[in-house]
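Bench notes, bay 3.
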Amino acid sequence: MTDEVFDKVTMFGADWCRDCRRSKALLDRLGVDYAYVDVEADLSAADRAEAISGRKNIPVVVLPNGKHFVEPSDAELQGELEASGVV
């Protein structure tokens, strides 16, 4: 785990990752203001994502309330975005 704080939804992913593309499309569809961190372009990003989730899987989606998801389903991610007032 990490003490890193996020002021908006942040997604760690990669362009080649199907689940990343799906989660990114959901965030776009819902009009979420989010930061996208490409783990391939930013050499430290994969380590940051692993520190947050404790896993090497992507996407890792972090909400401003500190809650994070690894490879979330669309329903799971949308439900938490709505519950936390992001959308």
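Next record in the batch:
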Amino acid sequence: MARKATNELLQKAKKQKNDEFYTQLADIESELQHYESHFKGKVVYCNCDDPHISNFFRYFVSRFKKLGLKKVIAACYKEQHVDLFETKENNHGFFFEYTGTELTGTDPNTANIVYFKGDGDFRSAESIALLKQADIVVTNPPFSLFREYVAQLMRYDKKFLIIGNINAITYKEIFKLIQDNKAWLGVNLGRGISGFIVPAHYELYGTETKINELGERIISPNNCLWLTNLDNFIRHEDILLTKNYIGYEQEYPKYDNYDGINVNRTKDIPQDYCGYMGVPITFLHKFNPHQFEIIKFRKGNNDKDLSINGKCPYFRIIIKNKHANPKTKHLTEKYQSVSLK
């Protein structure tokens, strides 16, 4: 019930365009440690972040010298709150630029905050002007505007590391980027992201919620991921394949509407199958583009969802092993030929 309830909360937020989910510092540290080499001499833009409360901003300010950063910019929409537990609304968005000398700590309360003429929406001309200065964008963007947000990053050819809902990879626009090797998943996802800070007016559903020692209200939906185009170690590690298709054909049923087999778990991908395979979307967390080719998403030859005996498994990605065991390739082809007779 806990996970279902928190998932429903995210869906409700999406429908209402209520996107006040603030990332915990521990989750930022857990992911960003794998990308430190990318930041030397770079301008980082956190364009959905109130510099007063953003843990992304605090992370980069506290590690400014260690990472060798050139500048950090944090900008936010007018409806961000100066205090997470207040309801006061600003008339204008605002931003803060840090170059290593403006603060004694990580809090810009006494610093020179600059106000936009407009609302500070990431799509506004003022925010885009700051985006053009940036080398890398790192933030937790509005889940309800995820497609549009990523499209803007691609339009301006920006490097990025952002948080989204796992279901975002089922969006055709996002999936296409992954298929074309223009974006990929980060290191942590699901339970690897411990939860989000939410304002006081959010209901805390289920048992996977808490109020931490700082009085912050935390929900843990366990269904989020990092999406990036910064290189990481996972996409260079082969998935260890230990299963076989030959001799275990009954465990890999064929689709009704596509010439391929169904694989229910990534760890069950057979090492000796050279044809097309449908795998769960979570496969993308282990995807190595040198080991596998992504063929298509979800649909069979009749443009309907992939099905087995008339029933459709949850979203599947069709893949092909680029390096199937050559010693068994001819056997796989023989079995395919026999099964088609």
